Amino acid sequence: MINQLEQLKSMTTVVADTGDFNAIADFAPEDATTNPSLLLKAAGLDDYQPTINQAIEYAKSVTDETELQVTEASDYLSVLIGKKLLSLVPGRVSTEVDARLSFDQAQMVIKAKKLIGLYEKEGVDKSRILIKIASTWEGIKAAEILEKEGINCNLTLLFSFAQARACAEASIFLISPFVGRILDWHKKSTGKLEYAADEDPGVISVTAIYDYYKAYQFKTVVMGASFRNKGEILALAGCDRLTISPNLMQELTESTEVVERKLIIPTAFKDVRNKLTEAEFRWQMNEDAMATEKTAEGIRAFAADQVRLENLLRAKL
Question: Which residues participate in catalysis according to the annotation?
Answer without folding.
Answer: 132
